Amino acid sequence: MPAHMLQEISSSYTTTTTTTITAPPKGTLKNGGEKLEKTPLYLGEDIRPEMKDDIYDPSYQDAEGPRPKLEYVWRNIILMSLLHLGALYGITLVPTCKFYTLLCAYVYYLISVLGITAGAHRLWSHRTYKARLPLRLFLIFADTMAFQNDVYEWARDHRTHHKFSETHADPHNSRRGFFFSHVGWLLVRKHPAVKEKGGTLDLSDLKAEKLVMFQRRYYKPAVLLMCFILPTLVPWFFWGETFLHSLCVATFLRYAIVLNVTWLVNSAAHLYGYRPYDKNIDSRENILVSLGAGGEGFHNYHHSFPYDYSASEYRWHINFTTFFIDCMAVLGLAYDRKKVSKAAVLARIKRTGDGSHKSA
Ligand SMILES: [Zn+2]
Ligand SMILES: [Zn+2]
């Protein structure tokens, strides 16, 4: 459906009649037509007018027909298996690790998580706040250390995930099961719909950002250095850790943990938990995921309000990333943080929530 028609349907909910709607978006009528007349369905408050391509488009539905055959990407399957074997071996080495090696691995984990959550996710995918150059430099280094594809590709996949959630155009469609949405999607070729719909998104802001394009250009050598070589060499060189401990704990185990906690946002937080803000979408509130992934488990809220810099109704409640962004704001490095008003959140809870919110 062309964008202007979508806009028309969306704005028609603000009027008192729905007779002009010929094809109501998926899931809306379940909730009762009258309720939807009063407030726009997808756009909410216009607190971030510069971007719309991460807003859910319920008019897109999977085409009928057989599923395309799975095409395995053997290189990824082998590398991912080796990494996880190395990480498992790393677990057995933890008791014999030097304290500073463990501390170092923990700090790497925190930095990598921030690269994804505060960087690739909240800054570059959703533009929920603005960051000055020193912070953007830190985040691009941190994101490179996390090695989850460069920011441009990550943000493109992620905007596609939000706009076409739970369809074949969603790169990690959770309707294809826990394993697929967790890691399986990285081990097979993308569904043709991902490429087709992902290609329609506006990524001009990312293309225009020199730092993002710079990372993309030098991504492979940068990842080798930031994710593997440097984290392995530091404990070995500075406090005489064995090379094996350094490699398997500070690098393999730390990298595998960061990957898995962020993947849990796509798998567990789309499958397990309450939906206090919107029961018509699959993403859920999952506190355990928030604990591991720096505050990214308030996922029903986040899909309902993707432009909120806290990715949660709250600020510092199990949300290390928001704490970090707020600290950066105190230093003047982060600014223009978008936060949805309480009134808009309460209205949404009332309109589309599953009744599990304390205010419901
Ligand atoms: Zn999601
Ligand atoms: Zn998101």
From TrEMBL:
Q: Which Pfam families match?
A: FA_desaturase
Which reaction equation describes what this protein catalyses?
octadecanoyl-CoA + 2 Fe(II)-[cytochrome b5] + O2 + 2 H(+) = (9Z)-octadecenoyl-CoA + 2 Fe(III)-[cytochrome b5] + 2 H2O
The GO terms describing molecular function are: iron ion binding; palmitoyl-CoA 9-desaturase activity; stearoyl-CoA 9-desaturase activity
Q: Where is this region: Disordered?
A: 15-34
Q: What is the membrane topology noted in the UniProt record heading this document?
A: Multi-pass membrane protein
Which cofactors, if any, are listed as required? Answer: Fe(2+)
Question: Which InterPro entries did the record assign?
Answer: Acyl-CoA_DS, FA_desaturase_dom, FADS-1_CS
Endoplasmic reticulum among the record's keywords? yes
Give the EC number.
Answer: 1.14.19.1
* UniProt free text on domains: The histidine box domains are involved in binding the catalytic metal ions.
Name of the protein in its database record? stearoyl-CoA 9-desaturase
Name of the gene: LOC101965270
